[in-house]
Design brief:
This protein is an alpha/beta fold and 248 residues long. The protein has two domains: 3-97, Udp-n-acetylmuramoylalanyl-d-glutamate--2,6- Diaminopimelate Ligase, Chain: A, domain 1; 108-216, Udp-n-acetylmuramoylalanyl-d-glutamate--2,6- Diaminopimelate Ligase, Chain: A, domain 1 (3-Layer(aba) Sandwich). The chain has ten helices and eleven strands. The strands form two sheets. The protein has a six-stranded mixed beta sheet with strand order 5-6-8-9-10-7. A five-stranded mixed beta sheet has the order 1-4-3-2-11, sandwiched between helices. β5 (119-124) and β6 form a beta hairpin. Bound molecules: zinc ion. Zinc ion binds next to β3.
Length: 248
Amino acid sequence: MQRNELENYLNQLLEISSFKDYCPNGIQVEGRNSIRKIVTGVTASLDLLNAAVAQEADAVIVHHGYFWRGENACITGMKGRRIALLIQHEINLFAYHLPLDCHPELGNNAQLACRLGFIEQDRFGEQNIAVRGKLREAIPLSALSEKIAQTLTREPLIIGDPGQSVKSVAWCTGAAQGYFEAAIAQGVDAYITGEISEQTVHLARESGVAFIAAGHHATERYGVQALGEHLAEKFGIQHQFIDIDNPV
Ligand SMILES: [Zn+2]
C-alpha cells in the first residue's frame, strides 16, 4: 500500500485530531512510498530501528516516537543517530501516543484490560484517558498481583495489603501515576498503571486503595501490537511486533 493511504487510515482510525498531546501523532519521519512490511514496537529506540532494518521493514509504528514537547528540537546526539538510520534506509516512522492509549479496541488500555480480564465500565481523568471497571469476581490483591506477573511476564510493585479484596479497579497504561487521586475518587479498590513515584506510596497507604506499578513498557506492549495485526489483516501487508525489553 502507499504511505499516504496508510497515514490517512491510521490518523482517522486513531482520531488524532481529537487529542491534545505532548508530541506529534502520525508520520514523524518520511521514508519510501510503498509499504509492504511493518514493524511495530513500544519505543523508537536504536535497537528497535536496527531490528526493523534487519527485517527490511518499510515502516515502523511506535507508541513513543520523537519530538516531545520541551525537548531540544535539534536533530543531534541520540535522536540524530536514530533519525539518520531511518533516513538512510528510507524507513517511515509513525508514532501514536495518547490516541493509541485510548482507542476503544486497539488501545493500550483496552488491550491490557482484555489480557487481565478487566471489564470496562467508564472513563475518567484528563481527556478521558483512564478507565474504571471491575473484575469478574472479587479476588485478593495477591491473586491479582500473580495474574499480572504471569500475563506481563514482569513482577509488579504493589502497595497494599496482599489479603485485601479487589473487585473494582481503575487502570491507565504507562506513566499515569498522576491519575491515582482521580482513581481513588472513583471509589475503586485498586489502581493499575506502569510507573510509581515516591508520593504514590503514601497516597496508597493513607487512602487504603491498592496501587500496582506493572511496568511502563510492560503495560504498553499490546496496543501497537494489536494495531499492527489489524493493519496486516485489513490490508494484507506483513507485520512483526518486536519487543525490545525495558525493565521500567
Ligand atoms: Zn508511554
